[in-house]
Structure prediction request, 192 residues.
Amino acid sequence: MLSGKGFDNVINMAGGIKAWDGHIAVGGEDLGLELLTGEESIEETLVAAYSLEAGLRDFYLSMIAKVPQADVKSLFQKLSDIETLHQNRIFDEYLQVSGNTLSREDFDKNLVVSAVEGGLTTDEYIRMFQPDMESAVDVISLAMSIEAQALDMYTRASERSTDARSKEALQRIAEEERGHLEQLGKLMDKRV
Prediction:
């Protein structure tokens, strides 16, 4: 199943999920789908996705003040920059499909809602994973958990979308989340 979804290196583990002692996706199957019910237009879908990216970017930026180590601060800045790039792409797509000429500032003020990717709040993620904020490995692991949760959420949202253009946009965003996970994996490989 995973290899058919673009994962090149799939390893089967004896004992399955019960033998795994790492992080796993959490929550019910509707977690995070409050903004993406499946009935949204392409424009509404892109606003919701942009909002989720903005929430995660804000989370990463807020974490900079909470960590003492310069390299971990730098890592949070890099992660927030990745989210900004994702927001830029979603905003550009919104302008293209909507024909709207909103400025980015007006878009942020008037359309965007407060949310974090993956369906949990910042505090819920921190309580759940309890990362050591002085450890780059823990910070990257936290980011990977959030991005994996987001990949799952966008995939589920695309499956239930009734608008073909929204479905396609959500699938594209899910693929971008997969790319974020790959980038984080490379960062992790450099740290470990």
